[in-house]
Each structure stands twice: as structure tokens, then as C-alpha cells.
Amino acid sequence: MSSVLNPAHLRLGVNIDHVATIRNARGGLHPDPARAAQIVAQAGGDGITVHLREDRRHIVDGDIQRVQDATGLPVNLEMAATQEMLEIALRHRPHAACIVPERREERTTEGGLDAAGLHNQLAPIVGRLTEAGVRVSLFIGPEPHQIAAAMKLGAPVVELHTGEYAHATGPDVATELRRIADMAALAAKNGIEPHAGHGLTYENVQPIAAIPQIAELNIGHYLIGEAIFTGLEASIAKMRALMDEVR
Ligand SMILES: CC(=O)[C@@H](O)[C@H](O)COP(=O)(O)O
Ligand SMILES: NCC(=O)COP(=O)(O)O
Question: How far is the CA of 78 from the centre of ligand 2 (A)?
Fold first, then answer.
């Protein structure tokens, strides 16, 4: 059976950006994101995610190759839809590239990509990456018109932004969860592999992990934060166990 319809194993991509945030606080080499990637592999992570931001606030250009060389795990490069990032992605040819919206002044990626409104800007980027053998993903909000736009662009993957779910309280939690579940089902029905991520924690991961069509979660900030207290291997193992409990 296709992995879109029944992903046997919910993959965990670990975003190691914030290892670089700590490194950059002192401008040296420690802690090294490449070493973090090796620990992700030891801990049973299925992939490494890095977001090369235009302002290089965490991962920097030289990290990409070092992270790619550190393990045999697939690397998912998150990138803005710019010529500069396209050239970098084509040079490194990661397993996957997830196109994300970026605003320099934002604290984090606050919403999804407007794949519908940016069709003309995204189409050549999706095309060039696809030709280069890179699996393209679009980081979108859980909205039907964004799934339709991803279909029109021929993206094989969408990553549903879980930030609004993660920040919701009271009855809004169920509403946000339903939006994500419905859009995961819609994506899968249309042959697009749904992933999810942003703001996921030990407390909120299980309802998302239980959505049967979702094939991969990308989790970063919380895992790196927990690693300060328990170690990176232990924080990943605990997240993995929580995901496995519901699949
Ligand atoms: C797109 C996304 O969600 C990630 O890139 C992740 O959150 C990285 O951290 P910052 O958003 O804090 O840069
Ligand atoms: N695409 C989401 C991601 O990579 C991790 O987001 P977060 O867990 O750092 O919020």
C-alpha cells in the first residue's frame, strides 16, 4: 500500500536549528549541529531538518554539508522561496526541501506559505528542485485552498503548520485539530503526502501523531529545549515513544 494512504511508520524529523542558535550565541563551534545530527541518528530519528534562514540566525551555509555528511539520514532543508536559497538547495541536493514563508523580523515561522497567492513565484522553484531530484514540500496552513494550490504546483508533500493548534486553548484545540486532520485527509486523498510540524511538545503531540494520514512530524525547538535537561538522545526517545503509543 502506498505510504500516502497508510504510512506504516510515523517518521520523526528532528529540527536541529536551535543547537546552532546556542552555538551562535558565542560565535564559536560548540555545540555543533553535526554532532547533534549524529545523536538524532543514534536516538532513532528518521531525518534531520534544518532551516537556513535568510538572516542566518541559526544554521549557516557551512552547516548544510557538514550535517549531510554527519549521518546517512535524509536531510530536509527548509528554505524561503528565493533565488539565493534555490541555488543553495541545488548545490546541496538534500533529500527534501520544504518551502516556508519568511519574514525577517518574525520570531519564528508564524504562519503557512501562501501557495495559492504565490503560484507564479513558486512554480519555477518547485520545478527546478523536482528536476534536481529533491522532494519538494510546502509548509502551509491547514486550508483547503492551500492544498489545491499544492496540487496545482505538483508538490508531492505538504507540511501542515501546527502552530495555531499548539497555541490554542479550550475548545479551540479541538477546532484546530479537526482542521489539521481534515486537511491531512484531503491531501492524502489527492496523492499528496501530509507532514506536520511547528510548536509540537510532549503534551500536544499525540493527537497530531494519531492522524492516520500524517507520515512525518518535524519537531525542533521543544526537543532541543528538553535536551538541556535530559540530553538530546533522551528527549528524542521520549518523543518517539509518545508518537508510537498512538500509531
Ligand atoms: C519552519 C519552521 O517551523 C522551523 O524552521 C522552525 O521553527 C525553526 O525555528 P525558527 O522558526 O525559530 O527559526
Ligand atoms: N517545520 C517545523 C519544524 O521544523 C520544527 O518546528 P519547531 O518544533 O521548532 O516549532
Answer: 10
pLDDT in tens, 181-201: 999 999 999 999 999 999 999
Whether ligand 2 lies within 6 angstroms of the CB of 140 is answered as no
Q: What is the pLDDT of residue 7?
A: 56
Ligand 2 centroid–CA 187 distance in Å is 20
The predicted structure's pLDDT at residue 110? 86
Cα angle, residue 63 at apex, residues 58 and 65 outer, rounded to 5° = 150
Query: Which ligand is closest in space to the CA of residue 196?
Result: 2
Chain Cα centroid distance, residue 141: 13
CA distance 130 to 148: 19
Q: Has residue 180 been placed in a domain?
A: yes
**Is position 2 within any domain?**
no
In a domain, 104, yes or no: yes
Q: Are 171 and 201 in contact (CB under 8 A)?
A: no
Q: Is 71 annotated as a binding residue?
A: no
State how many domains the chain has.
Answer: 1
CA-based nearest residue to 138, from 122, 117, 162, 120 = 122
Domain assignment of residue 1, yes or no: no
- Any idea what the CATH number is for the domain that residue 235 is in? 3.20.20.70
* Structural domain range at position 79: 11-245
When pLDDT is cut at 50, 70 and 90, the band that residue 5 belongs to is very low
CA 55 – CA 197 distance, rounded (Å): 22
Burial class (CB in 10 A: 0-12, 13-18, 19+), 40: buried
